[in-house]
């Protein structure tokens, strides 16, 4: 396994889903030059074992990276960094990650009984709060 993945750290207490954290870590390793075009990634099962997560979690992260054309899985050969992402590719990946994070949050809030208008109002409140106080990161700073 590539040594870069042996030191990958995930925050299991974060509200950010693990699969999105994996996507973010791989994106960072590429932009920092740790991973380059042609480098092989661990198999889904190897990385899942290393990170102690369900292999479906890693598979989902790999699917997002594959959809963004950052990695390519070649049956029988493995998964490789497909290309060094340009600015547009990174923006697309960020948008996909944002959509996934929002979908995850909305699913969770809906399962807790909140209506779409209630969710939208709460999100708008948080966005407005960040717009007027951009340096406030404390979740209890109301």
Topology:
Elements: H1 3-6, H2 18-31, E1 40-41, H3 44-51, H4 55-67, E2 71-74, E3 78-81, H5 87-111, H6 116-132
Antiparallel strand pairs: 1-3, 2-3
Helix pairs in contact: 2-4, 2-5, 3-4
E-strand count: 3
Determine and state the CATH class of the domain at 3-87.
Mainly Alpha
What composes the largest sheet?
A: 3 strands, antiparallel
Query: What percentage of the residues does DSSP assign to strands (E)?
Result: 5-15%
According to CATH, the homologous superfamily of the domain at 3-87 is Winged helix-like DNA-binding domain superfamily/Winged helix DNA-binding domain
Q: Helix proportion of residues, in percent?
A: 55-70%
Helix-and-strand structural type = mainly alpha
What gyration radius follows from the Cα positions, in whole Å?
17 Å
- What is the CATH-assigned architecture of the domain at 3-87? Orthogonal Bundle
For this structure, the CATH topology of the domain at 3-87 is: Arc Repressor Mutant, subunit A
Please count the helical segments: 6
Q: Uncertain segments of ≥5 residues (pLDDT<50)?
A: none
- Determine the mean pLDDT: 85
Topology pattern, helix = H, strand = E: HHEHHEEHH
Strand order within the widest beta sheet: 1-3-2
Shape: globular
Give the terminus-to-terminus CA distance.
45 Å
């Amino acid at each position: 396994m590539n040594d870069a993945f042996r030191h990958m750290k995930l925050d299991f207490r974060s509200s950010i889903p693990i699969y999105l954290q994996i996507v973010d870590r791989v994106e960072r390793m590429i932009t920092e030059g740790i991973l380059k075009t042609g480098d092989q990634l661990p198999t889904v099962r190897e990385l899942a074992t290393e990170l102690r997560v369900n292999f479906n979690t890693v598979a989902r992260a790999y699917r997002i990276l594959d959809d963004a054309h950052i990695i390519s899985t070649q049956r029988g050969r493995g998964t490789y960094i497909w290309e060094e992402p340009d600015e547009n590719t990174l923006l697309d990946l960020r948008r996909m990650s944002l959509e996934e994070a929002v979908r995850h949050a909305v699913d969770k809030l809906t399962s807790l009984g909140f209506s779409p208008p209630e969710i939208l109002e709460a999100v708008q409140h948080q966005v407005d709060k960040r717009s007027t106080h951009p340096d406030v990161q404390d979740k209890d700073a109301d």
